[in-house]
């Protein structure tokens, strides 16, 4: 008799789980759509506030866990705010719809995944979009803002990337990467060269960050052969040399 009850209970719960999942997907789609509407009527600040309010569960615990929850959700906040700012950065409706669709893809497809490759992609996207917004929207702010923003974005991205590995020195590696990135921002921030709308430092940190992430991942799954390591390092160095050599360093420093 207990087995029949347990079987019957499982049978009844399955449809409820399906409805709950569909309802959850609907809510996750609703947030990007609401942000799009607010951007269209020039309430960008309200759209960002709506995103921050949607993360209320981070603080629905004891205060001692708040910092850890913010760090854990930092990449999600960074990507969400970046999509809203990209929407607001253009008045072309099709581009705004494109960023809205990208935001929906993030909330429904990539963000819920927890496998190693998906978490790595989340971290890489968080660093790329976070730095892009920082230097595109706030490139003319004082240097300490750029240095601090670069440190924050790269630290959160590195912590997020390392969270999918059984690494005891996650905090150390994240701090090393963040401090290196902040130091590079302090040096290159005096020139702040752009390739179109992309700052040079974004290209450098993207090449370095993605290359080292690939090396770490391949090493963690025992697929990093000496030859492959040399190839990846060679490609990384070649790209960096081209970036530095082809840059115009004759401009006046800030």
Quickly give the structural class: mainly alpha
Amino- and carboxy-terminal Cα gap = 79 Å
The gyration radius over C-alpha positions equals: 21 Å
Overall shape: globular
Q: Report the β-strand fraction as a percent range.
A: under 5%
- The domain count comes to 2
Strand order of the largest sheet: 1-2
Put simply, the count of helices is: 10
Please outline the major beta sheet: 2 strands, antiparallel
List the helices and strands and how they pair.
Layout: H1 2-40, H2 44-53, H3 66-72, H4 74-88, H5 93-110, H6 116-137, H7 143-162, H8 170-188, E1 194-195, E2 198-199, H9 200-220, H10 226-245
Antiparallel strand pairs: 1-2
Helix pairs in contact: 1-2, 1-5, 2-4, 4-5, 4-6, 6-7, 6-9, 7-8, 8-9, 9-10
Give the key terms.
single chain, 254 residues, mainly alpha, 2 domains, two-stranded antiparallel sheet, 10 helices, 2% strand
Brief synopsis:
With 254 residues, the protein is mainly α. Helices cover 75% and strands 2% of the residues. The chain is built from 10 helices and 2 strands.
């Amino acid at each position: 008799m207990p087995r029949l009850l347990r079987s019957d209970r499982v049978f009844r719960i399955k449809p409820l789980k399906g409805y709950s999942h569909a309802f959850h997907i609907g809510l996750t789609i609703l947030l990007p759509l609401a942000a799009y509407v607010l951007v269209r009527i020039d309430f960008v600040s309200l759209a960002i506030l709506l995103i921050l309010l949607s993360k209320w569960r981070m603080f629905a615990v004891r205060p001692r866990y708040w910092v850890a929850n913010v760090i854990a959700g930092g990449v999600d906040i960074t990507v969400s705010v970046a999509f809203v700012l990209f929407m607001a950065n253009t008045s072309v409706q099709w581009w705004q719809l494109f960023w809205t669709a990208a935001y929906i893809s993030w909330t429904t497809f990539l963000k819920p995944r927890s496998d190693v490759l998906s978490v790595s992609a989340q971290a890489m996207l968080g660093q790329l979009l976070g730095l892009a917004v920082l230097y595109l929207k706030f490139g003319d702010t004082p240097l300490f803002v750029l240095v601090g923003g670069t440190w924050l974005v790269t630290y959160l991205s590195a912590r997020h990337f390392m969270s999918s590995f059984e690494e005891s020195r996650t905090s150390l590696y994240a701090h090393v990467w963040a401090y290196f990135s902040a130091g590079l921002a302090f040096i290159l921030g005096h020139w702040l060269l752009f390739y179109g709308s992309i700052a040079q430092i974004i290209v450098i940190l993207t090449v370095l960050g993605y290359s080292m992430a690939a090396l770490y991942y391949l090493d963690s799954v025992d697929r990093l052969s000496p030859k492959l390591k040399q190839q990846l390092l060679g490609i990384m160095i070649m790209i960096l040399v081209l970036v530095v050599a082809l840059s115009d360093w004759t401009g006046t420093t800030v």
